[in-house]
Amino acid sequence: MRIEGKTFLVTGGASGLGAATVEALVGKGAVVVVADRNSDAGAALRQRYGSAIEFIQADVTSEDSIVKALDLAVGLSGTFSGVVSCAGVAPAERIFGRNGIHGLQSFRAAVDVNLVGTFNVLRVAADRLIKRDRTGGEEENGVIINTASVAAYDGQIGQVAYAASKGGVVALTLPAARELARHSIRVVTIAPGIMETPMLLAMPDEVRASLAATVPFPSRLGKPQEFASLVCHVIENPYLNGEVIRLDGAIRMAAK
Ligand SMILES: NC(=O)c1ccc[n+]([C@@H]2O[C@H](COP(=O)([O-])OP(=O)(O)OC[C@H]3O[C@@H](n4cnc5c(N)ncnc54)[C@H](O)[C@@H]3O)[C@@H](O)[C@H]2O)c1
Prior knowledge:
Structural class: alpha/beta
CATH class: Alpha Beta
Number of helices: 9
Distance between the termini: 40 Å
Shape: globular
Organism: Paraburkholderia sprentiae WSM5005
Order of helices and strands: EHEHEHEEEHEHHEHHHE
Mean pLDDT: 95
Bound molecules: nicotinamide-adenine-dinucleotide
Largest sheet: 7 strands, parallel
Protein name: SDR family NAD(P)-dependent oxidoreductase
Radius of gyration: 18 Å
CATH superfamily: NAD(P)-binding Rossmann-like Domain
Oligomer: single chain
Keywords: Plasmid
Low-confidence stretches: none
């Protein structure tokens, strides 16, 4: 699918991997609706990209919020063609840690944002893509890109909630792609390794250096632009479907 002239929704687009995705899509001539719960980011994004973006404060766990965000995307001038789900949280908590037993509420909260939120965006986006008028004779109708994590496969100690939430995103990819195939909609998930986003940049230098040393090659943290470049490739390559792509420099995370 060509990116130019299309409209995409990017959740979590105010920061990190989502923000790099917004930049890449705008750079290729797309109109982007940024849906993020961080309302302060809206004005800054507007100043940077002008009318190439619309910002809407949204919580991916809320049905109402995501319906509003997608209706905004569908109503814009470009052809609404898909979503990139980057909104997520990365809590760390042990099953039996210093402060006792893992909270049930904190487990639910991680699953709610990372898994239920991703599914919420996917299902409303699919509905809007299926119902929209198809013009231009393109082979496909839309593309839905989710963000998991290598923690879905090699979750570390303290990542039970995070790994479970991302494992759910990995697992829903194939059945969603199979079901939406008859509507010419693709579903692909990217599972990043350790990426240089605000979350990671907040860590002390020595912690970042030791994390980077665990990556076989290139032995450094991944750049958000490398994630964004893969997003663009997934959109542009119609034969990628139903797949989870690790983007991780061959890292296999240790237990801790
Ligand atoms: N950075 C990494 O190393 C890494 C590795 C693997 C996977 N990931 C995943 O990539 C995604 C992006 O991570 P990042 O590193 O860019 O994080 P980030 O914290 O820089 O950005 C996440 C964005 O999501 C938004 N957000 C959080 N909860 C939300 C909600 N309920 N509704 C709407 N917006 C919400 C935040 O406001 C923020 O702008 C996440 O799903 C994360 O789990 C990140």
